[in-house]
Amino acid sequence: MPEFSAPLRVTWELPADPSSAADQWRELVRSRVLFVEIDPAPGHLAGLAGVADLLAVAGAPRVTLAAGAPEATAALAQLSPVGAAAVDLLFLPPHVATAFPGFAAAFRSVTWALWSTAEGLEWFSGALAAARAAGGGTVAVRNPPAPAAPLTPLQRQRAVAEWQRGGAPELQLKIHDLFLSRDLGLDPFREYAGCQAGDALAHLSAEGVVTACRTLPVVLGTLADKGLREIWCGEARRELRRRLADAPAPCAGCAVAGRCRGGCRGLAPGGWGSVNLSARDPSCPGPLLAGEEGAG
Description:
- By secondary structure, the protein is an alpha/beta fold.
- Helices cover about 30% and strands about 15% of the residues.
- It contains eleven helices and ten strands.
- It has helices spanning about 20-30, 70-80, 80-85, 100-105, 120, 125-135, 155-165, 180-185, 230, 235-245, 255-260; strands at about 10, 35-40, 60-65, 85-90, 110-115, 135-140, 170-175, 200-205, 210, 220.
- Strands 7-6-5-4-3-2-1-8-9-10 form a ten-stranded mixed β-sheet.
- Helix 6 runs parallel beside helix 7.
- The termini are far apart.
């Protein structure tokens, strides 16, 4: 069986049909995916019934559920205590601090989460406040689904100001956006070495379509035609990785091009698969000279 090029993390749009969800889950397990993030679309949480008894099985991927308080409560009604204890919760807005104790006791871990978008950052101060009220934890700003627009400098500045007002020693930040991470004073390259779409990341739609990641909607194949590992050996994925391996031409001369490699390539509009793989992350203000700090 073909091997993945890196430990694979799949974001999964849970199908509404439990039988379809079970079929896709078995393919994820068969393919030996290490991490699965379940992102149920509105009305699709019913599909969880198809995998509720399979999440804690030995050899299954580590599972994260992205859900708000009502959806997380509904999920707990479908999961056994053992199943819920095998699931990490990405607690989506609105962040209800009063729900945290119950979720913390039921799920393996709880992270306060929001999207790396203009709309998502409107919940940043609320997430910080709820996490403080709960006694600490991690606030995660996640890569957004396509189509997505980059954060503006003003939006990042506002987030920095909110962190300066509402941050606390007991709070940790996990920031996907390279430039927001830099502005918040984190090391932007600590866990980043270029776009990982189609390498360490993939996205699986409810219909079984495999794309490079949820921000980069380049179609790699469909489970109706072949298995996930076979898709990984396909020409579409190989071509994508060839195009992402090097920094795009606008990054020429940049001191951090070898580490950044163009940033989040899914944020550049237009071109192949609704993105332009020849463009760098629009958040970047331009190539950096040697000695300049940060990612852009």
